[in-house]
Amino acid sequence: MKPTSKLFRSDIFRCCSLAFLMLVVLTTALRAEEPAATQTKPAVTQEKQSERYTYRRDHDPNGIGKFYLGREIAHVMGFRGAYWLERVEREQEERLSLLPKALKLQPGMAIADIGAGSGVISVILAEHVSPGGKIYAVDVQQKMLDLLKKKMEKQGIDNVVPVLGTQKSPGLKPESIDMAIMVDVYHEFEFPYEMMQEISKALKPKGRVVLVEYRKEDPSVPIKLVHKMTEAQAKKEVSRPELNLKWKETIGILPRQHILVFEKTTEE
User: Fold this and answer.
1) String of b and e for 235-248 (b: at least 16 CB within 10 Å)?
2) Please, which of 29, 128, 204, 262 could form a disulfide with 209 given CB 3.0 to 4.6 Å?
3) pLDDT tens digits, residue range 105-127?
4) Which of 115, 121, 135, 61 has the alpha carbon at shortest distance from 91?
5) pTM listed for this prediction
6) CA pair distance 180, 245, nearest whole angstrom
7) pLDDT digits over 44-56, tens only?
8) Coil, helix or strand for 236?
C-alpha cells in the first residue's frame, strides 16, 4: 500500500502543479490586457475634454457633471415631477400668463413649446394663436406627452400637437415654426449645442427663440443654482455665430425669470 500511496501523492502533486501553472498563465494573460484598458482611460478623458463638453467628478449633486461653456447641465425633471409644474401657486409666483402679450403672439403662428412637460405652457399659448395657429408640444418623455394629451382632451384644446423629440433634436421640419419657446428647460438640455442647431433649422427666417430662465443673478429666487442661468451665460451659449441666432431683447416683466429673445439671422 505504501508504494501506491506514494504514487497517488505524486499524481496529486503533478495535478496541482499543472493547475497552478494554468492559473499563472491565465492570470498573466488577464493582466496583460489590463495596461491596454488602463491606457485607454486617459485617452477617453482627453478626448472628452477636447470636445464641446467637459466632465467633472466634483460637481453640484443637482447637475449631471457635464459642463458646457463653463455651465453645469442640470438633471432633467422626470414625469413624476409633473405635480410641481401643475402646482396652483405657480401662476402667482411666476406670472407666466404674461408671456403671450410680452411675446406679441398672433393668430396663425406655429410655435414649438420645447420641453412641454405636462402642457402648462402649451395651454397658455394655444388660445393666442387661434384661429389657424398650432402649438407643437415637444418632449423627450412619452409619459409626459401622455399627460399632456389627456389635459388637452379634458380642456377641449385641439390645436396642440404632441411631438416626441430626442436629446439632440426636437423632431420638427425645417423652417416650419415661427417661434421656439423653452420655459425653465434649456438648462436641462443634455446636448444644448446640438439641440439649438436643430431648433435653429426648424425656425422660419426671422423666427424667434425664447428662453425663460430663472435669474441666477438674483439670490432671492428660491431655485437650485444649476436650474438658474445668468443673462450673460444664455447669450454666450445661444448667440454663437454658427447657430444663426442673435440676441434681440431681454424682457424683464416676470418676478423670477428672464425672458430672453433671440432672432434667426439670414446668415448661413
Assistant:
1) bebbeeeebbbeee
2) 262
3) 999 999 999 999 999 999 999 99
4) 121
5) 0.80
6) 12
7) 344 344 489 999 9
8) helix
